[in-house]
């Protein structure tokens, strides 16, 4: 089915007992379509645990994605940190794929003292072997570097798009709230439209039909993201974003990262479907 699906970043708060499977049940009960499994503090699942998750999500038609650990840095100075990042990205992607997830979100790293172009080259060269290994081993999952919210963190819009255009198996996670926080702009229909056009320029129109999107309310300073907020407490213009996504015929999964998780995920879904 064309169009956008909506889900939560992790297990909904209103889930009685917080397990991945209960979370999938709760997402379905709420009338949502998807859930991002949070490996952000570690890959908490072993391979045998993935089977029931995949079977349940298929049964309830809940689309899964996953988020890799926060502490990856493919531009680390220390060789062992790069190796650890590669191992964790591989392990997260493999586990997510066994769960039936089609996308793995990750943060490529930090510029540290490097120029953006030097950081870009290191990050590209260190991610590529992981993408190649996953493809060779036959795991059908897209690695999705995320547009970042902080100016110190690799991942402005064009860097992210260029990375995805260079490495087969990569597609972007567009966190529109992050980009608004990072730039202090990009909060209107025409600016959202520009972002989507940029994406299509780098990756082709087909990328608009296979999107992975993060949205939340957000608080920010000139340095970028401070913290996530609920949409009602934030200036983020989600209505014009949803309108723009609809007008461009975008399809894919929208994951809500607001602190209230399922409440804003439902607000986003209802708003999207109320657009005449
Ligand atoms: Zn993230």
Describe this structure in words.
With 276 residues, this protein is an alpha/beta fold. It has a single domain, classed as Alpha-Beta Barrel (TIM Barrel). Helices cover 44% and strands 17% of the residues. The protein contains nine helices and ten strands. Strands 5-4-3-2-1-10-7-6 form an eight-stranded parallel sheet. Helix 3 (79-98) links the parallel strand 3 and strand 4 (103-106). Helix 1 runs parallel beside helix 2, helix 3 packs across helix 4 and helix 7 crosses helix 8 (238-247). The longest helix is centred in the middle third of the chain and has 21 residues, at 116-136. The chain is globular. The two termini are 18 Å apart. The relative contact order is 0.14. Bound molecules: zinc ion (ZN). One of its GO terms (molecular function) is DNA binding. InterPro entries: AP_endonuc_2, Xyl_isomerase-like_sf, Xyl_isomerase-like_TIM-brl. This is AP endonuclease, family 2 protein. Keywords: Endonuclease, Hydrolase, Nuclease. Pfam families: AP_endonuc_2.
Tell me the domain tally. 1
Number of helices: 9
Principal-axis shape: globular
What is the correct CATH architecture?
A: Alpha-Beta Barrel
Tell me the fraction of residues in β-strands, as a range: 15-25%
Query: Which hetero ligands occur in this complex?
Result: zinc ion
Number of strands: 10
Radius of gyration using CA atoms only: 17 Å
Provide the residue-averaged pLDDT: 95
Subunit arrangement of the protein: single chain
Helix content: 40-55%
Q: Order of strands in the sheet with the most strands?
A: 5-4-3-2-1-10-7-6
CATH domain fold name: TIM Barrel
The major sheet is characterized as: 8 strands, parallel
Distance between the termini: 18 Å
Low-confidence stretches: none
Q: Briefly note the structural class of the backbone.
A: alpha/beta
């Amino acid at each position: 089915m064309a169009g956008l699906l909506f889900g939560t970043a992790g297990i909904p708060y209103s889930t009685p007992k917080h397990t991945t499977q209960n979370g999938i049940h709760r997402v379905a009960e709420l009338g949502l379509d998807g859930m991002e499994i949070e490996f952000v503090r570690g890959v908490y699942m072993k391979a045998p645990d993935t089977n029931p998750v995949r079977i349940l999500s298929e049964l309830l038609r809940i689309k899964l994605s996953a988020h890799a650990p926060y502490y990856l840095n493919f531009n680390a100075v220390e060789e062992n940190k790069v190796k650890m990042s590669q191992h964790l990205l591989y392990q997260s992607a493999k586990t997510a794929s066994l769960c039936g997830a089609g996308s793995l979100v990750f943060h490529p790293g930090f510029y540290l003292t490097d120029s953006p172009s030097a950081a870009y080259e290191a990050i590209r060269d260190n991610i590529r072997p992981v993408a190649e290994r996953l493809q060779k081993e036959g795991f059908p999952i897209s690695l999705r570097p995320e547009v970042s919210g902080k100016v110190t963190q690799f991942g402005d819009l064009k860097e992210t798009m260029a990375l995805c255009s260079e490495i087969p198996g990569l597609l972007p996670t567009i966190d529109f709230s992050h980009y608004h926080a990072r730039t202090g702009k990009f909060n209107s229909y025409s600016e959202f439209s520009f972002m989507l056009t940029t994406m299509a320029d780098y990756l082709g129109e087909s990328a608009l039909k296979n999107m992975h999107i993060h949205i939340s309310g957000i608080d920010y300073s000139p340095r970028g993201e401070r913290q996530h907020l609920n949409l009602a407490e934030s200036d983020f213009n989600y209505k014009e974003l949803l309108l723009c996504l609809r007008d461009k015929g975008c399809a894919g999964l929208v994951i809500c990262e607001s602190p209230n998780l399922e409440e804003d995920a439902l607000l986003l879904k209802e708003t999207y479907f109320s657009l005449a």
